[in-house]
C-alpha cells in the first residue's frame, strides 16, 4: 500500500473512532430501554454493535471490535431467549466497550501527534 493510501485510511479511521466516541452518548438511554424490556431498544443496540464490530475490525481497532462483538452476541441471545436478559452483564460489557473506545481514541490521538515532523533544533538538543 502506498503512503498516500495509508494516510487516507488513517484519516478515515480517525473519523470512525470520533464517530464511535459520539455514539457512546446513546448507550445509557439504549441500556435503560433494554432494562425496561424494550425490544426496539435491543434491536437498535444490536444493529449499532453489529456495525461497530465490523467497522472497528476494518480499521484495526481490535479491542473495540471484540467488545462490540461480545455485546452483539449477548443481544442476539437476549432476542432468541427474552426471559434470559442479563442486564447486569450487558451493563458490564457496555462499560468495557466504552473503555475500549476511549483507549482507541487516545491511542489514535497519540499516534497522529507522533507523526508530526521533528524540528531541526529539537533534534540538535537531543544529541
What topology does this entry show?
Layout: H1 3-23, H2 27-35, H3 39-58, H4 62-80, H5 87-114, H6 120-126
Helix pairs in contact: 1-5, 2-3, 2-5, 3-4, 4-5
Task: Characterise this structure.
The protein has helices at residues 3-23, 27-35, 39-58, 62-80, 87-114, 120-126. The protein is an all-alpha fold. The protein has one domain: Four Helix Bundle (Hemerythrin (Met), subunit A), CATH 1.20.120. The longest helix has 28 residues, at 87-114. It is elongated.
Distance between the termini: 34 Å
- The tally of beta strands, per DSSP, is 0
Structural class: mainly alpha
Q: What is the CA-based Rg, rounded?
A: 19 Å
Runs in which pLDDT lies below 50 for 5 or more consecutive residues are 114-127
Our count of helices gives 6
What CATH architecture label applies? Up-down Bundle
Largest sheet: none
Content of β-strand = under 5%
Our count of domains comes out at 1
Order of helices and strands: HHHHHH
Please tell me the overall pLDDT. 86
Q: Class, according to the CATH hierarchy?
A: Mainly Alpha
Shape: elongated
Amino acid at each position: 500500500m502506498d503512503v498516500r493510501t495509508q494516510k487516507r485510511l488513517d484519516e478515515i479511521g480517525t473519523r470512525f473512532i470520533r464517530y464511535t466516541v459520539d455514539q457512546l452518548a446513546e448507550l445509557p438511554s439504549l441500556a435503560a430501554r433494554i432494562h425496561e424490556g424494550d425490544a426496539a431498544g435491543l434491536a437498535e443496540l444490536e444493529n449499532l454493535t453489529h456495525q461497530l464490530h465490523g467497522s472497528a475490525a476494518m480499521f484495526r481497532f481490535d479491542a473495540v471490535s471484540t467488545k462490540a462483538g461480545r455485546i452483539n452476541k449477548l443481544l442476539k441471545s437476549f432476542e432468541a431467549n427474552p426471559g434470559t436478559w442479563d442486564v447486569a452483564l450487558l451493563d458490564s460489557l457496555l462499560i468495557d466497550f466504552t473503555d475500549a473506545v476511549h483507549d482507541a481514541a487516545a491511542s489514535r490521538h497519540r499516534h497522529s501527534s507522533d507523526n508530526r515532523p521533528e524540528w531541526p533544533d529539537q533534534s540538535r538538543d537531543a544529541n
